[in-house]
Amino acid sequence: MRSVWACLIGLVVFLVMLAVPAPTGLSAAGWHVAAILAIMVVWWIGEAVPPPVTGLLPLMLLPVLGVMPIEETVRAHASPLLALTLGGIVLAAAARKAGLHWRIARLAVRVSGASPHRLILAVMILCAFVAMWIATSVAVTIMMEVAVALTASVTVGMPREDPQARNFACAMIIGVAYACMFGSLATLTGNPMNALAAGMLQKHTGESLTFLDWMAFGLPVTLAGVPLSWWILTKIAFRFRLTAAGGGVASYALPDANKWSGQERGVIAIFAVAIAFWLGMPLLRLILPGASDAGIAVAAAILLFVLPGGSGQRMVEWSDLDRLPWGILLIIAGVIAMGAAIGQTGLDQWLAAPLRDIHAVSPWLAIVLLALCTAWLTELVNNIALVTIGVPVAIALATGLGVDPVPFAFVAAVCASLGFIVPGPPWLAIAVSTPPVRVPDLARAGALMLIIAPLVIAASALFNGVAHEPKGGSNRDIAAFRNSAAP
Fold first, then answer.
1. What is the DSSP annotation of 38-61?
2. Residue whose C-alpha is closest to residue 473's, from 283, 182, 203, 249
3. Which of 31, 200, 282, 415 is the most buried (most CB within 10 A)?
4. What pLDDT does residue 468 have?
5. DSSP for 82-120?
6. How far apart are CA 153 and CA 250, in angstroms?
7. Contact indicator for 456, 228 with CB cutoff of 8 Å
8. Nearest-5° Cα angle at 373, 367 to 374
9. How far apart are CA 480 and CA 487, in angstroms?
10. Mean model confidence pLDDT for the chain
11. Contact 134/88 with Cβ under 8 angstroms?
């Protein structure tokens, strides 16, 4: 019933906006783009239809309303970031098929010793690393199997209602969800919202962020967010006193460690080469000027389909991709197309108009407030909808301040990708569906994380914004940002 009402409300808002004249200072085409944006946001928030279907609306409505010809609309759908995301999806399928997550679980047991607290931290660190390279929802799904197995082995023989056992289980399960979320913020392949924000930034300002550019902003958030969330989970929200979690006890429920298979070695080798090329892109382009992050991702995916993986199969078969989140490609394509339309019709300038007179506000204060407000809104608004609205507003805010928009766009995108209390994002939905975690358990840690995480993100943006050199695009005074952010 909710979806029906959301569908009707979205259509009514869309038709009413088309029927009334455009506001002063905005072109008719810009008002039509605002109407499309409105129906997309309502449908995403109300879950009127599957999110990928909403992502198709620009492909249909932009040409019909005369905003952009169909050729230009389709061109906007052909962003290299889609190829980058596609490669990440195939890499995730290969990792899961090879069973690499169980190898990761055994590594966590070995490095944690006999401490249950260190075991949770080790699992969270490894979860974050996995989530850096594959989609968040896939990383949480496969690593939650590890969390459940380790929890069962550590608490074996203890009653399910035992407070110590329950607190350990909640800390482990929610810790995996948080770690995968923080890990996904570090790279363009980890979270589709990162690629979406990079695409919108390029369409609005002409600024192109490479894999390394994004990591400069995102990796510090991961490195700080994982240990901070572990400390909050184990020392404040779910304090417990357990011993003897390491060695054979914790590995009790894990599959036997056989010799490394050819498929495991092959998948790891392709992962390692892809990561090396991404990180070494400036050097690679000296040899191959046409090299790109998207090209590396596609090349890795093709290799996985070509190379044998044993038992008469390839490392990845097409049937292995059935349950992976293909729909995210349509969402990214739709939002990037909307970003192009927003820029071409002047809607972004119209949105920025009220912000042009805020020069008295310090950029560092503006970026902190942007981080806090966006993070809090994630508990009420769909992540995709919030990125769609938040990134253009953040760019407009930076324009009004006369500073580099990249740190602002980063903060808006990353904070809109958070989620700590309401189980709307996939990582929280999976955590809540894993006993014994319940929604009130999320609030015990989430309330504090909603303050700490945005501040960490803002600090990373401020620090890296001082060093970031814009490579082209809109005119902006980066010196103002440097002076305001520098100590």
1. HHHHHHHHHT-S-HHHHTTHHHHH
2. 203
3. 200
4. 52
5. HHHHHHHHHHHHHHHHHTHHHHHHHHHHHHHTT-HHHHH
6. 5
7. yes
8. 85
9. 13
10. 81
11. yes
| 179-202 exposure pattern, b = at least 16 Cβ within 10 A, e = fewer | bbbbbbbbbbbbbbbbbbbbbbbb
Backbone phi, then psi, for 314, in 5-degree steps? Answer: -80, 170
Whether a cis peptide bond, with omega within 30° of 0, leads into 436 is yes
Q: Is 465 exposed, middle or buried (0-12, 13-18, 19+ CB in 10 A)?
A: buried
**Range 351-356, long-range pairs (CB < 8 A, 24+ positions):** 351/392, 351/393, 351/396, 352/395, 352/396, 352/397, 352/399, 352/400, 353/25, 355/396, 355/397, 355/399, 355/400, 355/401, 356/399, 356/400
Residue 254 has pLDDT above 90, yes or no: no
Can you point out the beta strands (E) in 329-451?
none
Helix axes 293-306, 80-98, angle to 10 degrees: 40
What is the CB neighbour count within 10 angstroms for residue 250? 27
Q: What is the DSSP letter of 353?
A: G
pLDDT reported for residue 477: 40
pLDDT of residue 486: 44
Pick left, alpha or beta for residue 257 (phi over 0 → left; psi -120 to 50 → alpha; otherwise beta): beta
**Token pair in block for residue 349:** 């300038």
* Average pLDDT of the residues in 254-267: 73
Task: Identify which of 186, 107, 185, 184 has the alpha carbon closest to the alpha carbon of residue 150.
Answer: 107
Quickly tell me which residue has 């814009």 as its tokens: 470
Q: How far apart are CA 301 and CA 305, in angstroms?
A: 7
Bridge partners of residue 308, in order along the sequence? 314
> What is the structure's pLDDT at 455?
96
CA–CA dist 159, 247 (Å, integer): 22
What DSSP assignment string belongs to 226-274? Answer: HHHHHHHIIIIIS-------SHHHHTTTSPP--PPPHHHHHHHHHHHHH
| Contact of 240 with 168, CB cutoff 8 Å | yes
Residues 54 and 422: their CA atoms lie apart, in Å, by 22
| Tokens encoding 57 | 């609306």
Token code pair at residue 346: 């002047």
Angle at 87 between CA 335 and CA 181, to 5 degrees: 65
- Give the confidence band of 257 by pLDDT, cuts at 50, 70, 90: low
Whether pLDDT at 108 is above 80 = no
pLDDT band at residue 356 under the 50/70/90 scheme: low
Reading the block at residue 239, the tokens are: 């304090």
- Residue ranges covered by each domain of the chain: 80-195+208-321
Q: Which of residues 385 and 217 earns the better pLDDT score? A: 217
- Please state the φ and ψ torsions of residue 313, each to the nearest 5 degrees: -120, 160
SS3 state at 396:
helix
3-state SS, residue 381:
coil
First to last CA, the chain: 54
